[in-house]
Amino acid sequence: MSRMKAFAMLQLWTVLLLQAVKTYGYKPVIIIHGILDDARDLSELGAYIEKAHPGTEVHTLDLFDHYYSFKPLWEQLSVIKNITDPIMKKAKNGVHLIGYSQGGLIGRGIIQTTDHHNVDSFIALSSPLNGQFGDTSFINWLLPSKLKEDLYRFFYTNYGQLFSIGNYWKDPHHSKQYRKYSSYLAALNNESVQDNFSFPPSWRSNFARLGKLVLIGGPDDGVIAPWQSAQFGCFNRNEKPVEMRKLRLYHDDVIGLKTLDKDNRLKECTQSNVHHTHWHRNYTVFLNCIEPWLT
Ligand SMILES: *[C@@H]1O[C@H](CO)[C@@H](O)[C@H](O)[C@H]1NC(C)=O
Ligand SMILES: *[C@@H]1O[C@H](CO)[C@@H](O)[C@H](O)[C@H]1NC(C)=O
Ligand SMILES: *[C@@H]1O[C@H](CO)[C@@H](O)[C@H](O)[C@H]1NC(C)=O
Ligand SMILES: *[C@@H]1O[C@H](CO)[C@@H](O)[C@H](O)[C@H]1NC(C)=O
Q1: Which residues pair with 267 in a beta bridge?
Q2: Coiled coil located at which positions (predicted)?
Q3: Which terminal residue of the chain has fewer beta carbons within 10 Å of its beta carbon, N or C?
C-alpha cells in the first residue's frame, strides 16, 4: 500500500514539476521567418530550442509565406500583431522574439510600436535592421536584370513601396528620396520626411525597454548588404560600411541603442563562414548566439 502511495506521490510530483518548468521555466519563443520562407524553414531552429530547453512553447508564425512575404511591412505587421499580442498577454513572465532576415525587421517594428510588449530577448538573425543595398536573388527574381544602382528609381516611388524590400531599401546615393519614400525603415529610424510623420517617443522607449537586444550577423552572409546592417550599420555615401556606434541613430539614442549598450543589454554576435540561408540551421550559431539568451 505505502509503496503504491509513494509511487502515486512521485507521479504527482513529477506532473507538478513539469508544470512548474512549463509555467516558470522558459519563456515562450516567437519566431518570424524571412522572405520567400515559411514556418517549416524554421523547424530546425524550433527543434534546437526544444532540445536545449525542453517544454518551451515555440510559436513559429506561419503567415505571409513565400511570395506573400513581399507584402508591405506595415500590412504584415498589423496582421502579425494580432497573433503575437495574445501570446504576449498570456505569458506573464514575458516572451522572447526571434526574427530571421526580413522577419527581424518585422520583429523590430512590433517592439517599437507595441506599448504593452513584454519581449525580454529580441534576437535578430541576420536581419537588414538598417536597410539593404545589394543585389540578391530575391531582387533578381522581382526585377530581373536590374542593377542595385538603378533600383531606387523603382523602390522610391509609391508603387515601389508596395513591396516589402522597397520599405527598407537604403540607397546611400539617394538618401533624400529614401527619407521621402521609405515608409517603414525611415519611419522606425526617425529619418522620414513624409508629410504628417512625427516620430512617437514611445517608439524609442518601447525598444529601449528590451531585456536583451541580440544582433547576429557575419561577413560571409552574402545577401544582407552591408552585412553590418544586421548590427544596425549601413553604407555611407562612398559605399563603405559604417558601424552602428558611428551613426547618429546610435549617437542620438534615437531608438535606445545607446541606452541598451551602456546597460550591457546589447549583444553583438558575429560569426564567420555562415551564408545567409544557413543562419537558422547552424547549430554552432544557435549555441553561441541564441541559446544563452533564451532563459
Ligand atoms: C485584428 O484583430 C481585431 C480584433 O479581433 C480585428 O478587428 C482586426 O480587423 C484585426 N486586424 C487584422 C489586420 O487582422
Ligand atoms: C496631413 O494631415 C492633414 C490634416 O489631417 C490632411 O489633410 C492631409 O491629407 C495629410 N497629408 C498626408 C500626405 O497624409
Ligand atoms: C526625431 O526627429 C525629429 C526631427 O528631426 C527630432 O526633433 C526628434 O527629436 C527626433 N526624435 C528622437 C527620439 O530622436
Ligand atoms: C556554422 O557556423 C560556424 C560559425 O559559427 C561556421 O564556422 C560553420 O562553417 C557554419 N556551418 C555551416 C554549415 O554553415
Answers
A1: 214
A2: none
A3: N
Q: How many domains does the chain contain in total?
A: 1
Task: Tell me: pLDDT of 141 over 80.
Answer: no
C-alpha cell recorded at residue 153: 528609381
* Residue at 23 is within a domain: no
**Kind of pairing between the strands at 212-217 and 266-270:** parallel
Answer yes or no: is 124 within a domain: yes
What is d(CA 171, CA 151) in angstroms, rounded to the nearest whole number? 9
Tens-digit pLDDT profile for residues 231-268: 999 999 999 999 999 999 999 999 999 999 999 999 99
**Residue range 3-36, pLDDT digits in tens:** 666 666 667 666 656 555 555 589 999 999 877 6
Q: Which of 33, 37, 101, 183 is catalytic?
A: 101
What DSSP assignment string belongs to 184-237? SHHHHTT----TT----THHHHHHHT-SEEEEEE-TT-SSSSSGGGGGT-EE-T
Question: Measuring from atom 6 of ligand 1, which residue has the nearest CA?
Answer: 82
pLDDT mean across residues, the chain: 90
User: Is 195 near ligand 2, meaning CB less than 6 Å away?
Assistant: yes
Let me know if residue 175 belongs to a domain: no
- Containing domain of residue 103, as a range? 28-134+200-293
pLDDT band at 38 (very low <50, low <70, confident <90, very high): low
Grid coordinates representing 239? 559605399
What residues contact residue 54 under an 8 Å CB cut-off, 6+ apart? 21
CATH number at residue 88: 3.40.50.1820
> Does any domain span residue 155?
no
Ligand at minimal distance from the CA of 192 is: 3
Q: Which residue has the cell 544563452?
A: 292
pTM, 2 dp: 0.89
